[in-house]
Amino acid sequence: MSDKRPLSVVLLSALLLLAAAPAARAAAGPDLRTQAGLTSYSLAWLLPLGVALLAVGVSQPSRAHQVATSLPLALAAACGGYALSGFAFHFGGLGLVSADPAFGAWLAEWSPLDLVLGDGWGLLGLRGFALRDDVMSPAAWNLFLTELPLVTTAVLLPLVALDERVPRLPALAMAFLVAALVYPLMGNWVRGGGWLMHLGQTLGLAQGYRDDGLVSLHLVGAGATLAALVALRRTALGRPRITEPELPPAYLPLGLLTGALLATIGWCSVLLNPSVGPALDPLAALPRLLAALSGSVLGASFYGWLVRGKPDAALTGRAMFAGLVVVSAAIGSLPLWMAALMGAATGLLLAPAMYVVEQGLGLDDRAAVLSVHGLAAVAGLLLAAALGGGLRQLYAQLVGVGSLLVLAALVPWMLFALVARAFALPTAVAEAVRARAASRAEARHARAQARLRGQAPTLWQRLHRAYRRRAAEAARRLMARPNR
User: Is-contact 404 186, C-beta < 8 A?
Assistant: First the structure.
């Protein structure tokens, strides 16, 4: 019975997410007031739901409930952080790059380098804080609601990777920072008028940073996960497991494969939504996504057959979504055969990538966020450079990937470095106290042996013992304190 509780939590969260769509009808823009727009919006929420089910399916029963509750916590952090400041940082300067007259007044883009380097170096928007009624038009509400599933997904990735290894308060603080600062800055730089989308004009780097499917959101989630795992690596809670190299088991294989399918549906809905990115032709994008999906399933199944003699459910489910991430950055110009080939390569290389992260880098990434989302996103973004622009396009992609990884990792790393130090400090103090206690015990034993041999201590030895007794009082009081 206890094994079914995580699935119940996730499914209940799904009902709440889908129920929020009709409630948004009154405040949303024209797209969400149509049946087609409302259906597309509801399907987009399947993306974070599928990601949560993927993580629950490979979690041990003792940790599955904690992983499942990460979804509603991610939703709460995304709504709060993105509404308070994230939406303003993201789209405050959208009017500079959008032809929509509804955003004609959204021109508040902070760009301190423009006076020195010229136009096109925006860093963050400054309009729309706290969703004030005087600036939020129906089009702005439509855009805010459309972004919420993506923000929730970016916030969810580090939460499911950390599960119970850190207290909920620091984890929620990190999730709030991702929603309020990290994801919005990424969105501003890539599509909200920021500097990455203008690299072609400012530095002459071909088309500038190219990301047709907003794969950068996976890069943001994986970057935050990487920072947290590195910061916690030397603590007891973040120490990697020493195990033999093997494929991780699927504790809930049906739930895992269901999550992979739901995440696929949600991701396809996100890609085909023109409010999120460039308008894609469904008759051109969907065949490529299905080719990548089929190739990743075949590649992962073949690898499972080589290792275990049969396909592996956990590897196949993760490879399904990783294959979609790889091809999404260049989905607008990717040949069909290359989509299938990239999907197959992803399925074959996913397990070795997970092994390198776990054993080579020493990072306990139980949810495989760094492999499924991070490495797949990097590979897809670099693939976009290979399809057009030559060396200059590659430079633009490398600048974008490096900048977004630094952005995504810096703030979470600073937060979790403090958390790791808080965990390590009591352990270090206790070890020092135990070492001093052992030293005093050895000294007492030596004095007892000296008395047995008739060797009385000298005056200097007596004074030294008196000094050590006084110096040990603080240590004894520290040892007497309860270990919290």
Answer: yes
Cα 142 to chain center, whole Å?
Answer: 25
Which residues, in sequence order, are bridge partners of residue 124? 110
Q: Please state at what angle helix 70-81 crosses helix 138-162, rounded to 10 degrees.
A: 140
C-alpha pair distances (Å), 149 with each of 43, 86, 152, 265: 10, 14, 5, 13
Q: What is the distance between the alpha carbons of residues 162 and 367, in angstroms, rounded to a whole number?
A: 8
Find out whether 85 and 184 touch, Cβ atoms under 8 Å: yes
Helix axes 313-328 and 253-271, enclosed angle (nearest 10): 10
Strand partners, 125: 109
Q: What is the pTM of this model?
A: 0.79
Amino acid code (one letter) for 444: R
Name the packing angle between helices 313-328 and 282-308 (round to 10°): 150
The residues, ordered by sequence, that sit 6+ positions from 446 with a Cβ below 8 Å of its Cβ are none
- For 361-386, write each residue's pLDDT tens digit: 888 888 899 999 999 999 999 998 88
Which is higher by pLDDT, 8 or 251? 251
**pLDDT tens-digit map of 67-101:** 888 999 999 999 999 999 999 999 999 988 888 88
Q: Which domains, ranges and CATH numbers included, belong to the chain?
A: 2-423 (1.10.3430.10), 424-480 (no CATH)
Q: Which residue's structure tokens are 């808080």?
A: 422
Q: Residue 65 above 50 pLDDT?
A: yes
Name the residue with tokens 């959204």: 106
- Answer positive or negative: Cα dihedral of 107, 219, 400, 233: positive
Reading the block at residue 359, the tokens are 């054993």
Count of residues for the chain? 484
- The predicted-structure confidence for 425-475, as pLDDT tens digits, reads as follows 455 445 655 666 677 777 777 777 766 665 666 667 777 777 777 777 766
Joined tokens for residue 400: 């974008």
The predicted structure's pLDDT at residue 453: 66
DSSP H or E run through 88? helix 87-91
